[in-house]
Amino acid sequence: MRLEVRLESGARxxxxxxxxxxxxxxxxxxxxxxxxxxxxxxxxxxTALDVxxxxxxxxxxxxxxxxxxxxxxxxxxxxxxxxIRHGETVIIxxxxxxxxxxxxxxxxxxxxxxxxxx
Length: 118
Known about the structure:
Elements: E1 2-7, H1 11-23, H2 25-28, E2 31-37, E3 49-56, H3 62-74, E4 82-86, E5 89-93, H4 98-114
Antiparallel strand pairs: 1-3, 1-4, 2-3, 4-5
């Protein structure tokens, strides 16, 4: 399954998040991460390094991934809004409350179940 993670705070924070995810054994063992440019939005020119792309494999756990995102977010002085995309599924983390974490995990599990490549 291929996921994109965007932050409102840009490439520097994405690299921090990438390092965090790579240090988490559950995520590191089941997903590859890469910071890369995204497709420009209407009215924008070029690309920016503003997407963290994850390609997940066997043994991937949506719960571990969402908990790792929430833990990373808690370490930031400015806790950025986190957007996770998979196809048409868009998940927004704003406060990482238990309810929000559960909703994100459920949505990612549903997206994985519907993904023929997962």
